[in-house]
Amino acid sequence: MTVVDGWLDWAIKAPAPVEKGRYTNDPERAMSEILYLVMHLAGGWEAFLRRGHRPGEDASWTFSNCQDGDFYQHYPLSALTFTSGGYTQNRDGLACENEGMPGWSMNAVQIANARRMREDVKAICPNLRPPFLGAGFREHGELTNGATDCPSGAISPLYQSYITREEDMALTQEEHGVLMNLFAWAQEQHDMLKGAGEPDLSGLPQPESILGRLAALEAQLNTMPTLAVDAAAIAKAVNDDAAARLKE
Length: 248
Description:
- This protein is an alpha/beta fold.
- 35% of the residues lie in helices and 10% in strands.
- It has helices spanning 46-49, 87-92, 108-124, 140-143, 156-163, 173-194, 210-221, 231-234, 236-239, 242-247; strands at 3-4, 7-8, 12-13, 36-41, 63-65, 71-73, 93-98, 137-138.
- The strands form 2 sheets. The chain has a 6-stranded mixed β-sheet.
- The termini are far apart.
């Protein structure tokens, strides 16, 4: 892997407008400022994605991850693109748009590209957070309260690709077994909630409350010191569609 002036050597280089990759008061960032990767669902196809921006709008992004395996880079890693909900999110996060439509999830080749990209970014970004426990992957809906046409839940298979490999997380075999059981439990709750109509977001600890279910999962995670870093990340399987269903 070689990164030259912030460009990954294996990505298809497709530069987007320079003015859409900087803030007036902050034209670029240091590699040490990148804390996490923001994985977006594009709601569109490769022909649209490979531009790296929306003509006539401010929207722009660093990477486009396509379902056929093409992986485009539109800006150097130092650029601040306009895609993740605000200045702080755009500074701290590195944005990747994933080809697909609402309700779709990342496919195997997109997952492989995302993992490869993360490893390359990690090599030059010293403060990039761990992929799962450290919330090193985020989604648009987690970073802003405003309207977004970027549905949550598309990267659930990417999360699972990390938690099925205990060596990626420095877990003991016993800890990994418990983690996988918790993930299976979260998936079951998620499937139940998908058919439950409007979700209960009151935060009360009743079984039917999404936040109650998250609290129960967090309590279990907190009994395992190495897994108590970010309960919200593993609970993704439970609440990934809550915001979308509230809009219906």
